[in-house]
Amino acid sequence: MYWDCKKLRRGECTAHAVAREPVEVYKGVPELDHSHPPNQEESAAEQLTTTLKRKAANHPEQPPAQLLRTKMQGLSYGVLSQLPSQPALVRTLQRVRRQHVPAKPRKLSTIGDTLPERYQKTLAGEQFLLHDSGPPDTDEEEIWNQFATTINKTH
């Protein structure tokens, strides 16, 4: 594994490291290695962003605004100043969530096969998805269109 100081590419620091099992080998000009103090706020902001991404991946049912609200309470102004803007964080979390949500099934007959188990149960653990109650001779695309129209009318 290779690591570079964030300031390496700007020419402000020469520190970088190479990790090889079981020993870490540091490279760079010894007199210039990390000639700058660490930015604790920037590090905390990066850790928070990583935590938010993991939370969004593990709980795609939670809206990004809810994740941000719970994780950003009590942060110092220094850490907040190092975070991306709120709209950028929301977009990042939405992108992560989309990667962990199942795709819309193409056929009703395969919905039980393609939908993960956690989406087939209620919060109480009861089976939610039991069967397709539509008439067997109805075109599946027509059912999807009716469903989408109904959802759009209610929202």
Show the helix and strand layout.
Elements: E1 2-4, E2 16-20, E3 23-27, H1 40-58, H2 64-71, H3 77-82, H4 86-99, H5 111-114, H6 140-154
Antiparallel strand pairs: 1-2, 2-3
Helix pairs in contact: 1-2, 1-4
Q: Concise description?
A:
With 155 residues, this protein is mainly alpha-helical.
Characteristics:
155 residues; mainly alpha; 6 helices; elongated
Describe this protein's structure:
The protein has 155 residues and is mainly alpha-helical. The protein has 3 domains: 1-37, no CATH class; 40-99, no CATH class; 108-154, no CATH class. The protein is built from 6 helices and 3 strands. Strands 1-2-3 form a 3-stranded antiparallel sheet, with no helix packed on it. Strand 2 (16-20) and strand 3 (23-27) form a beta hairpin. Helix 1 packs across helix 2 (64-71) and helix 1 (40-58) packs parallel to helix 4 (86-99). The chain is elongated and about 70 Å long. 5% of the residues are buried. The mean pLDDT is 76.
Cα separation of the termini: 48 Å
Round the Cα radius of gyration to an integer and report it.
Answer: 24 Å
Q: Detail the poorly predicted runs.
A: none
Mean pLDDT: 76
Largest sheet: 3 strands, antiparallel
**Class by helix and strand content?**
mainly alpha
Query: How are strands sequenced across the largest beta sheet?
Result: 1-2-3
Helicity, as a percent range: 40-55%
Quickly count the domains.
3
**Count the helices. How many?**
6
